[in-house]
Amino acid sequence: MTRPVTMKAMVTKGHGDLDQMVWHSAWPCPSPKPGEVLIKVGACGLNNTDVNTRSGWYSKTVSDATTGDAFEEVGTDDPTWGGAPLVFPRIQGADVCGRIVEVGAGVDPKRIGERVITDGWLRDPKDPLNKDKTGYFGSERDGGFAEYTTIPAQNAITVRSSLSDAELATFSCSYSTAEGMLTRAKVTETDTVLVPGASGGVGGALVQLSKRRNARVIALASEAKHDDVALLGPDLILPRAPDDLRESLRTEKITVVADVVGGPYWPQLIAILERGGRYACSGAIAGPMVEFDLRTFYLRDLTFAGSTVIDPEVIRNLVRYIEVGEVKPALAAIYPLEQLHEAQSAFIAKKHTGNIVVIP
C-alpha cells in the first residue's frame, strides 16, 4: 500500500465543549515509527474517557457529573486520567478496529493485512506492569478518530471473528474496563453482582462478563431500557435508582457492586453490600463527590478496589472470549466520523442502549 499524505480526522484542539473537536479533511497521515504499525481504521468506539478528557472532567477542580459540556474552571496541571496535562492538538479515540497496512522497523511484515483491535494501555515494554509508566491511546498519543492511526505493535491485537468492524470496535475499552473491575473484585460463581448503569457500554459488559463467570447478576437501568438490558442475560433487572434499594432487592444478597456511576445514590450501593463484600469502581458519571460513612466500610469488613490501568493479559483474554463467542457486542448506533459531535451528544444523553461507534 502507498500511504496517503493526508487523511480525514476529527482533531481536538483543547479542553471545552464539542466545538473543540474540529473536522479536518486533509490532516497529515502518520507513519509508523520503529516498533509500531499503521492501521487503516474500520471503526472506532466512543467511551466516557473521550468525553471526560475533552471536557477536562478529570481535573480535581471539577466536582460535577459528566455532562460533556465545558466547565467554568479546569485545572491546568491535572485535566486527564493520568493527572498530567494533555498535549493539543490531539486525535482522540481508543477503541479501534481495523487492518494493519504498514509496519515500522523491527515489526514482522507478515503482520500487514491482520485485522486487529487496539489495547489502549500504552505500557513500558521493559516494565509493563508498572502503572506509573502507562499512557492511553487517544490521550498520550493520537488515537482512532481518523482514517489512519499508529500504535505500538504489541497494542494491535489480532482478532479472528465474523463480527463487523463496528461490532468489534465496541469491545476494547468497555469490555476490558469491565473485565478489569471483575478481576480486581475477584468475582466468582459464588457472587451476586449489582451493576448500576447496566444500559451503558461498561455496564452491559459487566453484566455479560459477570455471567461468563457464572455469577448471579442484578442490573439497574431505566425502565425504558429494560428490554434491551434483558438481552444481555441478567438474572434480575430493577429500576435505575429505587427509592429503597434494600427493599427492592428483597432476599438478594449482594456480595459485589461493580460501579461506574457514583453520584448521590452511592451511599445506597454501599449500604446493601453483605459483610465482607467488595466494591469496584471505574467511573463516576453521575458525580465524583459522594457521601461516605466510614463506619459502614470498616464495621462491615468491606473491600474497595479502584480500577483504571488493566493488566496486559486482560485484553488478550477478552479477544479469546470474542473469538469463541462467550461475549457478544452491544452495538447501539453507528455514525460517520464527521458526525462525531452528534455521536457524542447522543452518547452523553444516553440516547442509545449500549455502545456507539464512528466510521471514517
From TrEMBL:
Q: What is this protein called?
A: NADPH:quinone reductase
Q: Keywords in alphabetical order, please.
A: NADP, Oxidoreductase
CDD domains cross-referenced by the UniProt entry: MDR9
Q: Which GO terms describe its molecular function?
A: NADPH binding; oxidoreductase activity, acting on NAD(P)H
* Domain Enoyl reductase (ER), chain residue ranges per copy: 16-358
Q: Which domain of life is it from?
A: Bacteria
| SMART domains tied to this protein | PKS_ER
